[in-house]
Structure formats: structure tokens, C-alpha cells
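Lab meeting tomorrow. Please check the following:
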Amino acid sequence: MAAYGLYSHIQSNRRRSIALLIGLFFLVYLLVFAGALLAEALTTDAPIDYLVQAALYDLTKTFPFATIGTIVWILIAYKFHQSMIDAVTGGHEVTRAEEPKLYNLLENLCISRGITMPKLKIADDDALNAFATGLNEKQYSITVTRGLMNALNDAELEAVLGHELTHIRNGDVRMLVIAVVIAGAISFFGEMIFRLFFQNAFYGGFRRRGGGDSDRKGGAGLAIIIAIALIVVAWILSIVIRFALSRQREYLADAGSVELTKNPDAMISALRKIEGRGELASANSAVMEMCIDNPRQGFADLFATHPSVESRVDALVKFAGGHDPGPIALDAPAEPGQLSAPAEEGPWGTRDQPEQAREPPAGLEGQSDGPWGPHRG
């Protein structure tokens, strides 16, 4: 069922998370059956119906072990997925003392909406990107690259943090992590079966069978083809699961950022600066799918995990009243730690002001030209 609003989207994410976990077990059992069928075909050249029955019998014997193995995989991912992602991206947790300006931006957003503050992490990478991870409130964290900090002003950084907080609030992060766990498990089991198959094929299976007339009467060849096809299908399904995650989540996260910051222009300009500059060279495709923008798009946008920046900006202009400056050319990055203009005391302490003026509150008679054209009261 499609999610048409925020609350239906959150409920849909919860249902999909459960469905994804159930789907993981199904795909593992499918791979175990395919592996058993390969093993039977490599040792006995019997009719195909006999080989299938033998593979099903093998599946029933290995069922408990496959189930326990999958549960252990999930528990390992639950416990250590953040550490693995940090190892890939180089992310490390920072405190208020280390990054006071960025920390205050995130804290102020959380206080304003009563949101439990996630851990704040920084990846020392020149790419312009950010992502949220975690499966519960104790694990949630937001990682921002050093390149993003140097390229965006405070209002834009606040918009990006609001985007990631919305992903956490909407349950997108939990579902993405589960999808990554599924992809990892299927890749692991699939690769293991393929390795065992080729090892047996070249070092005993095919050589032992010889290739006489009796072999051609059996169904081993057909069974091998079916088993390989099942493994490929399971692998494709694990990819489809990741790509099938609604791209609507990015539009809703952009809208959630605007709701938190009351500044659609900041979200738009942040996206324009990030556009085409978010490639994390050390990150795999699963991590890139968690980022605010994923420049690794699929064939003809069919398998893209994110809508284009252009379409996201168009939505913010149409529905949030923002102004699109078009593609932005970046100047030389600021010195590390220098976020923007001088600070000003806010309701929760020091708060940096954006380099561009915010739009005047609605209802004011005076109008002035803002950074992206005339503002309307």
C-alpha cells in the first residue's frame, strides 16, 4: 500500500521493515535449496524429479542451521553495523567541545521538536554528503563530511541536519539498514555457494561423472541450470528490495527539513551545492544509498535510489515556496572549522547566522530582494 502522507509513510515503513526481515529468511532458504540441488547434481546424475526431492530433503535437514545462521547474521548486523559503516567512511563521533557550532545546530533542532538527539559524527572526506544510521534511539547517529561543513553555511547545514533527523523520525533509517543487512546476507550466501560449486565442478564433480551415455539420460545438467538460476534470482531480488524502497522518502525528508527550519531556500541551496559532489570513494553502494544524495545512479534512472536533485528542488519550489538559484559553482572551501558568519546569542546559546538573510516573515509589508530573487510577504 502506498504511503500518501507522513503518518502513513511511517506506518508503511514499519510494515516494510517486518516484510523485509521475513523476505530475508525466504531468500536464505531459497539459496540453501539451490545449493543442495547443486550438490545433488554434482554427485548423482539422476532424473530431475529425484534430484529436486533430494534437495528438498536436504533443505529440511539444514533448515534449523540456516535459520540460526540468519538470526546470528541479523544480531551481528544489529550490534556492529555502525562500527562497520564508520570503518568504511572514516566517521568518528564528536562532542560539543570539538565541534560546537555544528553540535549546537543539531541540538537546537532536536530541542525545538522534542527529538532525542542522535550521535553526531564527522567523516574526514572532501565529498559533500551526510547520512543517518541506526536501528533504535540508542544507536541513531548523523554523519557529516568535512567537505560539507566547509562548503555550506549554517542555514544550509541546519537544513541537511533537519533532513537526516526526518529520516530518523520517519523510520527510513531503520528500513535502509535492514535492506543493507539483507543484501549483505544474500551476497555472502550466494558467493559461498558459487565458490563451492566451482570448486566441486573443477576438482571432482564433473571429472567424476565422466560424460558417458548414462549421464545424458539423467537430469544433473538441468538441475545445475535450475540451481544457478535460483541463485541469480535470489541475488537480483536482494537488489530489487533495496531499489524498491520508495524514493518518496527523500521528498518527505526534504519537506521535514523545511518544517523544522522554516527555510526552504536553505534546503534548496544545500541540495544545489551537494549536487554531483557527494561521491564517497571509500563507501560501497549500500552506504551511498543512505546519503542525502547518491550520485551513483542506475541505468536510465530506473535503478536510482534517490530522485534527482532537479526534481527535489522543483518539489520544494512548488510546495514549500522556495527559490531555485540553479546549479551553484563552489568557491574554494573555507578553513576547517569555519562554518560561516559571526555568531549571535539564540534561545539555547550561541547560534550562527546564515550568510544569506532569511526570508522576512509572512505578512510583512516590506519586500526586499533576497539571495534568490524578491521575497513576498
Notes: The chain is about 60% helix and 10% strand.
